[in-house]
Structures are given as structure tokens and as C-alpha cells.
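Good morning C.,

I know you're traveling, so I'll keep this short. The sequence:
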Amino acid sequence: MAGELAAQAQAFFASTPELSLQALGSGEHVPSLDLAPYGIPVTHLLAEHNAELARQYLTLNQLAFGGIGVPRWVLSDLYLLPGAIGLLRCPARLLKAPARERLLLADEESAIGAACYVAPSLTPGLFVGVSLFSFLPGRGASAWVKLLTLGMVRAKRLRGVTQWDNPAVRVHSRLGPMRLVGRVPGGHDYDERTFVYETDLSDEARVARAMLRGDSPMPGVRIPVTDLLALGTLLDRAEAGARLELVPPGQDAGHVLVREVPPG
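The C-alpha cells, ready to paste straight into the viewer:
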């Protein structure tokens, strides 16, 4: 239930009271946002008047993703203009060392600790996961900034792109089973190990259980993340209509955890 997620969210922020939830985006979309997802207040900052914060986000995104980090024009045209980036901000002293060194901030200066951007799509209620990163170690910040950002934009379904061997699979599966959709339209820099997944966010009680890592269905098979032939076959089947899911926690000891959901 929504109350369960609200209680979990409150507990997360109580564990690190220095964190605050903020959003950076165009003022045009403020009326469309939920600025208290699961009871957590969001401070919306107008991207038109917060260029320095946008530069900080750009720096951290490029640090997190290296050669495929977001270009500046994409940040402006395709992130900030049509939507809003969810941010967890904190004192710079809480960040991992590489981020602190890159930002050159004093200990108590405000920094972006974690961030998530999901893009609106043509299908109502469906958002596309574009960027998720965290420089806050050991706090579960990635899953929380993702969930709260999705709540902020009122998403009911999420389609995302990731790699079989990416540790982020364990983060993505915190929100529930990841239904396999197929290959990435148009290809990807890491095409041979990349796939599209979908997460259903419409049942808040199920999402609350997933965030606690509770009540997960048993996987049917375990497939090594290096067995790209077998994993490619899964995508062929998913594209043909089979319902296949990565079961939370998604990965274990170098394997992805997969089950097939019977029709109906």
C-alpha cells in the first residue's frame, strides 16, 4: 500500500537526515509533477535559473558513465526542457572520493549525491529510464532516487535499458520483477549484452514488498551473464510474446535469475 512505501521512504531519510529530495527541470512542467511522492517533499529548482547545478549534474553524469555520459546539449534539450531530474542532495563530504575530487567542493557545500532521469514517452503513464547514478556509498540511494523520481512524474510503467552483467540490475530489480521486452531499438554502444526491460509500478503494495526484498518469486533458471547466446534466445522469445522476468535480486554470483510467467 502507499502507506508502506511512505513509511519506508521516511525511514530512508531518517537514516541520513542530511539528504534532501529535489528536482531540476523546466518550470513549465511543475503543475504536472507530484511534489510529495510517498510523502517526501520535493523542492523544485528551475533549470532556467540554476545553471551551476545543471553543470554539477553534467559533471557527475559524465564521471559516472564515461564515454557515454550525456552531452551538454542533450541535457538541455532532452532532459531539462521536457522533464525533470530527480536529485538527492547532501553535503559534499558524503560523496565518494572521485566525485568530491571532480567537483572541488568544501565538506559542507551542497552536492548532488544521486540522481535519476526518466523521459516521458508517447504512451500515457509510460516513462523511459535514461540515467541513474549515485555517489553515496552503502545507503541504497540509487533505488530510492529512482523510485521517488518515478513517483514525482506519476509513472505507472517504466521501460529501461541495461546490461546483463551490470550491477545496476540489482538496483533496478528493487522495484520489482523486470519483464524482458527485447533488444534496444536502433542498437546500443554495448549492444551484444544490452536489453530492454519493463517494470510495472501500478501495484504499490507489490513495489513496497520489492523494496524490502520480500516475497520474491523463485527463479526458474540461472543463466551466466557471459552466456550471450542463451540470453539472446531469451530476448528472441520475449519479442515473440513469451513473458519472461528477471526475478529480484536479478543477479546472483554472476548469473541472471529468470522465470517464465505462464499465459493468463
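Safe travels,
E.
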